[in-house]
Design a protein that fits this description.
Strand order of the largest sheet: 4-2-1-6-10-9-8-7
Shape: elongated
Strand content: 15-25%
Radius of gyration: 18 Å
Structural class: alpha+beta
Largest sheet: 8 strands, mixed
Number of strands: 10
Helix content: 25-40%
Order of helices and strands: HHEEEEEHEHEEHEEH
Length: 238
């Protein structure tokens, strides 16, 4: 008969490369090479039916192993000052779940997302600085066709204008939860949320869509920054 520890470890042990624990390890290494999660920053989560798989916080993202992954049941009540989140599995190492966890939960509860990605992309940071007064990054460009309205609606067309809200940063990641929630509710068409001088949160129905949209948004942020600095309009017919 297997022990409780063995049962917990079975949640992150699989030879299937598409198992969430294996995917998170692979994707974190890929995002590291893109410069999105260097210095232990950034994170990713994947939700499958009644379970959420989350990377640990404060670790070298390119070296994450499946055994480092946290598993939580979904749904579950929001933790209070006197209660903690419920975990189905914690790593044996002395690791802490991603500081992004409350923000990932926003994507689950508000957008019914299956995955959420947080990057510290320099393109995202530069965009927040150049559009700081407007509190909204706006662009019209071919690549917006890879972005979905609200993150999981229909795809945008070439003639649409992409808008990504910018919220102020906070000293602690988890303190962004309420302002992110407010922005998501105020701008239901937004497929991501930019954080001033910090990075971006992007979500999707599953990890593939979240990854695709993160890649497309990063491209759009990069080209938008270059256009802005070159004095070119980023929105058609304005």
């Amino acid at each position: 008969m297997s022990t409780s520890v063995e049962q917990e470890d079975a949640l992150v042990t699989s030879t299937d490369p598409l198992h969430p624990a294996n995917l998170i390890s692979e994707l974190c290494a890929s995002f590291y090479r893109l410069g999105w999660v260097t210095g232990t920053g950034g994170g990713i989560c994947i939700r499958t039916d009644d379970k959420v798989y989350i990377a640990p916080s404060g670790v070298q993202k390119e070296r994450i192993q499946p055994s480092h992954i946290f598993v939580l049941p979904y749904p579950q009540a929001e933790p209070s000052p006197h209660t903690d989140r419920i975990f189905l599995r914690r790593p044996k190492l002395n690791l802490k779940e991603s500081a992004c966890t409350p923000l990932f939960w926003n994507a689950f509860t508000i957008r019914n997302a299956g995955s959420c990605i947080h990057t510290h992309s320099q393109n995202a940071v530069m965009a927040t600085l150049l559009w700081e007064k407007e509190k909204m990054f706006r662009i019209s460009h071919q690549m917006i066709k890879g972005v979905r309205i609200g993150g999981n609606g229909r795809t945008l067309s070439y003639l649409d204008t992409l808008e990504v809200p910018i919220i102020d940063n906070t000293p602690n990641e988890e303190d962004l939860k309420d302002s992110m929630k407010e922005a998501m509710e105020k701008y239901p068409s937004a497929a991501g949320i930019l954080v001033l001088r910090h990075g971006i949160y992007v979500w999707g129905d599953d990890w593939q869509k979240a990854k695709t949209q993160t890649e497309c948004l990063d491209y759009l942020l990069e080209i938008g920054v270059k256009m802005k600095l070159a004095g070119l309009p980023t929105v058609l017919n304005e």
